[in-house]
Amino acid sequence: MGSLHENATARHLAILRVWVFGMWLGDLLKDPATDLARIPFAYYKPVGILAWLPTSFWETALTEPMIRIWWGALAVLLVLTTAGTPFYRGVALLTCALLTVYQGVIFGFTSVTHAPLAALYVAWILALFPAADALSLRRAPGRSTSVRVYETAILTATVLFLVTYMLVGTRRLFDGGIDIFTDGSILRYIARNTITPDHLQGSAGVRVLESPGLSTMVEIGFAIVTIFEVLSPLCVASTWFRRAWLAVMIPFHVLSWPLLELLFLHNLLLLCVLVIDLDGIAQRIGLKRRLERRPLARGA
Amino acid sequence: MEPVRLLEAAANIAIVTACLWPIRARIRAVLSSIPRSYALFPVASVALLIGAQATDEGERIYPLTDWGMYSRSFVEDPRFIDYEAELSSGREEPLLIGRLFGATGALLRSRIDDSARAIDESGSVDPAAIERLDAMLAAIAREYDADHPGDPIRTIRLWSGTVSVGGPDRQVRTSRRLIHEYRAR
Lengths: 300, 185
Prior knowledge:
The structure holds 2 protein chains of 2 kinds.
Chain A: H1 10-29, H2 55-61, H3 64-83, H4 88-109, H5 117-128, H6 148-176, H7 179-182, H8 185-194, H9 204-209, H10 212-230, H11 239-260, H12 265-274, H13 278-284, H14 287-293
Helix pairs in contact in A: 1-3, 1-5, 1-6, 1-12, 3-4, 4-5, 5-6, 6-10, 10-11
Chain B: H1 3-20, H2 24-32, H3 36-55, E1 79-87, E2 92-94, H4 105-122, H5 127-147, E3 153-164, E4 173-183
Antiparallel strand pairs in B: 1-2, 1-3, 3-4
């Protein structure tokens, strides 16, 4: 059995930090969030811990000038965290707290969706662990007491990411039973989500529903995806399962956009660094030896 | 907590344990060689996710949540709300809300759908519900007009529809009826 992220170093964890916080920065920059101030406040229902704050707070916080301020603050914090700023842990924790509020505010106007949550949890892990011990702006990056702390951090992020898939799969089995795979439910979900497509004109979902062959394939695929979801944590321990998982999950994520109007971009990006054994691939093609001969950056 | 949720939590713990069993020696070695504060995070974070799932509380426990997704049998015909704009020029076109409000747009639509359905299903003329929906439709019209100043929105029509799926001829059929009309000022 091939185990994932074995012997991960400070540099591996730092690359994950740059990837994840960079991803969040890109997410923030493409959406200035000031649109939120133009949605009637009556549509805002604070979710979870955000409901602890009084309505008067939100009435002030969700005005356009205030949104600009906290959006700017979050952008600066994300740049600092991505770059591995001095006082990394404090800054990264503050970044994650603000990121949680930012995402929570969007959910307050819509509803909690799963798409960005795994990326949010991985960000928190990177803030709690010493993810700026390499590739960082710090003059003398610290060194953790044990090199295995870095391995623990990446392993924790990976297991957590995979557990979110497992939870989706087990919930489907517990609530939907076997019937959900045989009664055409997935076809009706496709019909519901794509009949009035906002982003994808042409409704690929409807074309699938009208083809008996494609409909059957989608129903079989739904069952296969669920089995792989349930067994997701096995990716950490088994190379062959990991390869099979990727062969199922990447097409599933890509197809869920036209078929279900769901784009799991965060998960696709996370999957590239957490589940694909990039280190092993680099080693096999000899890239790693070449990189190791070249000093990368201060503190690396 | 419902017994089925406890059973589900037990299954989740068993699956994680079984999947990670082949690398138990590695996990033990890693956890015993790092400071205890760090060793707590992996265990606590997985326990938090599984615990949150068991509460079945959804968005009330954000940033945690439960992970139900396409998990219930869906046997009735799916319903949808259609938004149609009549412009000042007289032209009619589908109103794509997902494109009007940045990242929130596509998700915002489901909340507006809920407001529209509330009016449709109750069949009532609850003035507060209609006022709330009209406030949202006014915001949508403003966003649209800002992008299309030459041909602003005159009226937004909301249609409630049903999709029939899986008939013998495999044709997807839709039917719809007008449930609300908003006239922009």
